[in-house]
Request: fold
Amino acid sequence: MSFRNFKMVSYVVFGRGSFNQLDEILTPHRKGDAPMVFLVDHYFEGKPLLNRIPLRGKDKVVLADVTYEPKTSQVDELARSLKEEFGTISGVIGIGGGSTMDLAKAVSLMMTNPGSSADYQGWDLVQEAGVYKVGIPTLSGTGAEVSRTTVLTGPTRKLGMNSDFTPFDQIVLDPELTKDAPANQRFYTGMDCYIHCIESLEGTYLNEFSKSYGEKALQLCQKVFVEKNQWDNESDDQLMMASYAGGMSIAYSQVGVAHAVSYGLSYLLGTKHGIGNCIVMNHLEEYYPAGVKEFKLMVEKNQIEIPQGICKGLTDEQFETMMNVSLGMKPLWENALGKDWESIMTREKLRALYERL
Ligand code: NAD
Ligand code: ZN
Reply:
């Protein structure tokens, strides 16, 4: 038996207004006149946050188009254009939701590793540390701020650059940055955390490390989505810490059925991660009875519409594609259903599940 020895984020700052410390945080990491590149979620175009970015010298703000989830081609293009413009950079700071943070992690790695980011989709394929990288979430739930992966859609698969070089060197957790998120988006991304917790706590990989973080994250999700009747500053604080703890829980376990099935939707239909997980979770009573019951309660209480019937009219070939992507996520299935998962989640069973969505 060998236990996972995992790399974590090196520095963490938490607090309302901690974004104002960014200049001071970055200063020791500036290498000569090589710029810092701020990759900012395009939602913030024309918003006051852009004026609070501590630009110095040749520093550059690049708006990240996250209309679609990050692609390897997008990462390669960003890294290529930065190399062309600057040669080398001091660091990259991702400010946004999970998509922007993943882009920032991947661009950091592709500033130093040769080839295409698609070459590194998988586990422990990255060979060189990237440039200094900072993650600043503006949505809470994915856990991308603490994870050792960056989820990318490539030419042949949707899979992360999962490596010890992937975690951020620094994260800035400032709950003030999440306060204007629309209620629907906040719910979908928040549910990513809730679902991570259920999948981790109900999984076969669970140990006390994962459980401790998972239970805390779950409790915080319940506070904001079940117990409270109104969203307030404290809710932003709580959901940000839920995301962090949920990510820490996954570091030592794995996600499960909702994620494995949702990856197929996202690959074929471009369904976004948060909403895709919700669409699937809605139909998983058989695997997570208590979690699904509470999930439905939260959907109702927060007056969220979960899309139905999204697989109507798909061809056999399309179902096959989704099933292949989904069944390729072996560790997720093993965590959810145990070593014999292949005899439990047969292709027929998975097809029937997709047809219900
Ligand atoms: P997102 O980053 O895709 O953003 C969703 C939408 O919200 C975008 O339109 C964005 O512009 C907008 N937005 C962001 N911040 C906002 C704010 N403060 N106010 C208003 N709008 C805002 O959403 P997400 O759910 O945070 O991230 C999903 C992505 O994260 C997926 O690409 C998924 O694959 C990835 N992910 C990564 C990990 C990981 O460990 N690396 C884990 C889970 C999910
Ligand atoms: Zn997730």
Residues 41-43, 66, 69-70, 96-100, 102, 138-139, 142-144, 147, 149-151, 178, 180-182, 185, 189, 192, 273-274 surround nicotinamide-adenine-dinucleotide (ligand 1) (CB under 6 Å). The two ends are 39 Å apart (CA to CA). The mean pLDDT is 96.
